[in-house]
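Figure S7 source data.
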Amino acid sequence: MTWLITGGAGYIGAHVAHALRAAGEQAVVYDDLSTGIRERVPSGVELTVGSTLDRALLDRTLTAHAVTGVIHLAAKKQVGESVEQPLRYYRENVEGLRVLLEAATAAGVHSFVFSSSAAVYGVPDVDLVTEDAPCMPMSPYGETKLAGEWLVRATGRATGLRTASLRYFNVAGAATPELADTGLCNLVPMVFERLSAGEAPQIFGADYPTPDGTCVRDYIHVADLAEAHVATAQRLSGAAPGTDLTLNIGRGEGVSVREMVDVINQETGYATPPAIMDRRPGDPARVVAAADRAAEEIGWRAKLDVRDMVASAWAGRAS
Ligand code: WQD
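Tokens for the predicted WQD complex:
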């Protein structure tokens, strides 16, 4: 079967494209190149440049490649920007998904994997957040991911489409240097940027109710995340019509910002003490996955740790 990977020229999507190819699956990439990079697409995988809002182009692409499965990663993903431009986020992330689902079901696609986020939970009040925890997103970005899950699930119920929503936790690292994250939106690249500029890494708040006072997150290596997509795609392929999975994709292990900054200093050869700044508005103290359901449903567990993430991300930056 052939998988259409939307957003497959992006940081995570390109990792998924490479991992699917390595697993012997056929893939085509669909990306508007707004943030994606053409060179990330694996050789031998065709790239169609376009928007998921373009129904006619989607129809042509799905038919031309006889696509039977979709992995949908194309989306806007900046929390702060979503607060300033909610309508843009709803158009691209929710309307783009709705159009894609319409095209996919019309074209006879039978499996659909949706890129969701731990942002759907908002501020969890448990140590390990299970998939059944209440979803109370704190930003328009998180809302669009939750609404996306609803759209995907409802379509599966109505049409028999096999669906999975993967709730990514904090993604970092690179499988190969060329696939590294070129954005500067998250902790690891932001700390790299400051260290390289000879400045102290910033910690946004050290007075949280956590062991060292800094926020705790569940960091997941993008290569492990890509393998989770492969496992999900293969699981859906053999599943009954209407199968519907919602899975946390994390390691189930909390790492604090201070611990991450220490690992980054060690792995990059810097030894620059961090500067403690004010809290960043909207940051929950702790967000860590319960990772058991993914192990049960798709037989997947993360293998790589934060040191692997930092070292591989740094190799990508230096390349
Ligand atoms: C991690 C921690 C910061 C930079 C967001 C989205 C989530 C997902 C991943 C998209 C926080 C702290 C950061 C710095 C710091 N997005 N920090 N100094 O906020 O957990 O999650 O990105 O798909 O949905 O909400 O990730 O990497 O921005 O921050 O102290 O220079 O690091 O305050 O506690 P976050 P992040």
